[in-house]
Amino acid sequence: MAISLDAAAEVFREAMRNAVKRYSLWYLIEGLLLIAAGVLAIVYPIFSSTAVIVLLGWLLVISGLLQALSLISARHVPHFWLQLISICLAMLIGFLFLRDPEQGLTTITLLLIVFFMMEGISKVVFALTIRPFPNWGWVLGSGMVGIVLSLVLWVNLPVTSVWLLGFLLGMNLISVGSAIAYLAWQVRMS
């Protein structure tokens, strides 16, 4: 007895709806806690930025150790040396982040600047490519915002590296928490 993909998707959606209804209070609490954590990350961006870098440092070190342990028993696998170099680099970066979180903040900020610039340029090119389509200007505007944001961050680099990561973390926590809390609230009201 085979079930169609649409029927399986509907069964999955219904199970998710039931789970959200059953645990809506916990989802609401989770959403509110995420919003509070996001507000704290924005209010204290230096602390939250540093905490992210330290956590990332520990994750790189611990995952590197675990990968090294599994690689010890597999010395004859293809590309052993490449995997070993990758593990060593991950652990080195982790130790550098732990030793000097400020440099880690600068590194991550530089990567974000490059990301915003590249994404902005690609959106501008895409917008100009689809120019006859309706509302192509929104895509162009989005690309321009990415480019301007990267330039503003670059010009203010020593200062932005201190608060940027914490601010972005806070914004993400608030958006995720708001979505979860709104969903739970709507389920509780229905």
Defining traits:
7 helices; 88% helix; transmembrane helix
Description:
With 190 residues, the chain is an all-alpha fold. The protein has one domain. The protein is built from seven helices and no strands. It is extended. The protein starts with a helix and ends with a helix. The model has no long low-confidence stretch (mean pLDDT 85).
Number of E-type strands: 0
Largest sheet geometry: none
Helix content: over 70%
Shape: extended
The percentage of residues in β strands lies in: under 5%
Number of helices: 7
Number of domain units: 1
- The protein's oligomeric status is single chain
Q: What gyration radius follows from the Cα positions, in whole Å? A: 22 Å
Derived from helix and strand composition plus strand pairing, the structural class reads mainly alpha
Q: Give the overall pLDDT as a whole number.
A: 85
SSE succession: HHHHHHH
Q: How far from one another are the termini?
A: 36 Å
Model regions low in confidence, pLDDT < 50 over at least 5 residues: none
